[in-house]
Amino acid sequence: MIVCKFGGTSVANAEQIKKVANIIKSNPQRRIVAVSAPGKRFGDDIKVTDLLIDLADAVLKNGNVHEKLNNVVNRYREITDELGLDYTICEVIAADLSERVSSDKSKVELFIDNIKASGEDNNAKLIAAYFNSIGLKAKYISPKDLLVVNDLPERTYALPEAYENLKFLADTKEIIVFPGFFGYTKEGILRTFDRGGSDITGSILAAAVKADLYENFTDVDSVFSANPKVINQPVEIREITYREMRELSYAGFSVFHDEALMPVFKLGIPVNIKNTNNPTAPGTRIVPTRTTTPGRPVTGISADNGFSILYVQKYLMNREIGFGRKLLQIIEEEYISFEHTPSGVDDISVIIRSNQLTPESEERIVKRVKEELHADDVHFNHGFSMISIVGEGMRNNTGLAARACAAISNTGANIEMINQGSSEVSLVFGVLQKYENQILRALYDEFFATVTTC
Amino acid sequence: MIVCKFGGTSVANAEQIKKVANIIKSNPQRRIVAVSAPGKRFGDDIKVTDLLIDLADAVLKNGNVHEKLNNVVNRYREITDELGLDYTICEVIAADLSERVSSDKSKVELFIDNIKASGEDNNAKLIAAYFNSIGLKAKYISPKDLLVVNDLPERTYALPEAYENLKFLADTKEIIVFPGFFGYTKEGILRTFDRGGSDITGSILAAAVKADLYENFTDVDSVFSANPKVINQPVEIREITYREMRELSYAGFSVFHDEALMPVFKLGIPVNIKNTNNPTAPGTRIVPTRTTTPGRPVTGISADNGFSILYVQKYLMNREIGFGRKLLQIIEEEYISFEHTPSGVDDISVIIRSNQLTPESEERIVKRVKEELHADDVHFNHGFSMISIVGEGMRNNTGLAARACAAISNTGANIEMINQGSSEVSLVFGVLQKYENQILRALYDEFFATVTTC
């Protein structure tokens, strides 16, 4: 059984929704469909989710609610028209929206969640109606009482019972159309997931029914081995392991939101990223362990900027049990997470995303490290990029680090930091931000564009 | 003013002590002399310190105390003979030893300390007597009431007042001969320093009198850039910074005990390692900042084995604030110190000296990391070496990492770990132990033996 998820551009208008129907029809294994709200149809278009945020705003500020509500309903009406459906579904959607607009506003955050989630919810109803109209037996299923999530104030996540509740979807005879992006607490309060929330819904459904495959339909043929904004027509990745994807996602290789794949990862369910507009293309498969032997040791190279380095030096540091731990504790007490901690004998650096720092927090950290850890030198440096070379094939490739270092040094850039863990799936270089694109190109040339000799 | 320290082989017999006198005479700046106990005169010889341990053992086990005591006194008698001194000093030494033998044995550790320290103490008396006999005005000074140390049970270190107490030595008209290796608590209890203790004494004296230079006399011309047991006639180091020396000492480059230079380091006093047997050779200078420009970016390469790697993997690890800190806390609670913590996005490795681990402590750590941190994979690997390339000149040498990686990969060995901090004074490679010597040779060839192009 396959669980499919269709992103916003894949369900943005009638033409796209027809493609979705054809995709579902073309493989009887595709039994469960998670859908997003209608996305952009062209560059300057406004997504339904943004229209809904506008609506919620109007309601809360006593603005022109009627107009804003019509903007939303009209998008669905247009789709309904073009799909040749009767307006019954639009009436259902309009009524649903009106009800949400007059719902409880005592918790603004929850009110906005409720309005926003209608985008996916009503699109799922519409798509189910369309499927049935063309003879594809389908059923809209609400997350209510099924996809149970935790209470406020923690970030939204599915409770273990959600997986139990959703199991039965494996045995229904109709195609299931399920709205992405939200669930309900045990008390019936609607809560939305973090960004990329429809990906999570699809992932939860795939895990609940123990799917053989989770197909994630979007608008690109596959994941690229490097940022196509910097590298001209980078190599497409056919197969990538979960670990490789995680290592790449670290440095700006935004395929999925971090947590989106957690449910399928835990069960080892493979994921296939595919293009709704070119469904016969193989796409990119994300797998627990590699099934094919790639022609090269490196799977992808990612780069991300906006990093700072906290440098701490103290004579005889390495004789002090607990020094590293105390340093990390001080950082933790500022609610700051860190990326790497390269160290010498008497110094340790902590690589931190700069957006977590303020002049005040930096000052507090420097002061505490000086006073509490009696460090000889403590200071922050800013403006670094991290460049990750990732590939399971790097594990036993002796010359790879040398090739990477040589490629970087040929650009004239200095290597500020090298980090290679014992996992050997990734090699991370810290460099000055201004060299980032130049180095990315040099590394891409070294590992993808040239004939490799190993 | 120069403070000199002479090690065991430099004061092992009359011939050596005459060399010491000549060294002192040849430069009027040399005003304070810290001395060790007489060391080995030839390969199979027994050091006085070991004879003293034998004596202490015989006293505690009711063995042949008379014979053991004579073994010690005879060594001094032999020296006295050859120096042409009268036996008064030997009587002083014999009486001192007898008094120590009958001293309080309620704390065995302190009793042994008291016997052992007589080696340095009596040698200082003897050397002062010799100096005076040849017209070099000298004065033995006991550490008592001057070099004040902390109380048990902590490791011995000098209290701040020791530096105050010893200041006056700068203004005495005689050459000061001061025994190395021990101090006294405020209550007058003798305590010895850790191994390399005479180095610490010299260092404390140099700091107390704010010396211009601390000369450390031993039996080699200088410090080598790599282990001469592995590399044939390695390049001698003329000048090395404190930081370089620290980075090298990490991996088996045993010049000084870690803490020995702390007092002079704090004041930025340069150290000169020199050879008693070839005092006109320049030796190796340890300096706060480099005064000469070396011809190569690398100052030294050291290698050390016996490392283990704790590998921890957890999906989404990098989203968890506090993960690294909690991991280090578990290790700290086993009283284990660590060397490096290279990390990927979802994994972190902790490099630990294997001699700190037992099967039981490994099991406890693995269990706690699994249970408390919910890690997906936790295990130990053993049998690693760490190889450090060190040099202040590496800071702005872009191609250096590439050259090092290439040299290692040409040996066929895999690089298990690379660690370069933001300090850039060192580059550390983790490799399998069996490749250690081969890699050390390859790196030495790369950075010292070949003509460098940068």
Automatic annotation (TrEMBL), chains A, B:
This is Aspartokinase. Substrate binds at residues 49, 120. Coiled coil: none annotated. Keywords: Amino-acid biosynthesis, ATP-binding, Diaminopimelate biosynthesis, Kinase, Lysine biosynthesis, Nucleotide-binding, Transferase. Pathway: Amino-acid biosynthesis; L-methionine biosynthesis via de novo pathway; L-homoserine from L-aspartate: step 1/3; Amino-acid biosynthesis; L-lysine biosynthesis via DAP pathway; (S)-tetrahydrodipicolinate from L-aspartate: step 1/4; Amino-acid biosynthesis; L-threonine biosynthesis; L-threonine from L-aspartate: step 1/5. Belongs to the aspartokinase family. It catalyses: L-aspartate + ATP = 4-phospho-L-aspartate + ADP. GO terms for biological process: diaminopimelate biosynthetic process; homoserine biosynthetic process; lysine biosynthetic process via diaminopimelate; threonine biosynthetic process. Its EC number is 2.7.2.4. One of its GO terms (cellular component) is cytosol. ATP binds at residues 5-8, 218-219. Residues 389-454 form the ACT domain. InterPro entries: AceGlu_kinase-like_sf (IPR036393), ACT-like_dom_sf (IPR045865), ACT_Aspartokinase (IPR054352), ACT_dom (IPR002912), Asp/Glu/Uridylate_kinase (IPR001048), Asp_kin_monofn (IPR005260), Asp_kinase (IPR001341), AsparK_Bifunc_asparK/hSer_DH (IPR042199). PROSITE patterns: ACT, ASPARTOKINASE. Catalyzes the phosphorylation of the beta-carboxyl group of aspartic acid with ATP to yield 4-phospho-L-aspartate, which is involved in the branched biosynthetic pathway leading to the biosynthesis of amino acids threonine, isoleucine and methionine. It comes from Lysinibacillus composti. It comes from the Bacteria. It is an enzyme of class 2 (transferase). GO terms for molecular function: aspartate kinase activity; ATP binding.
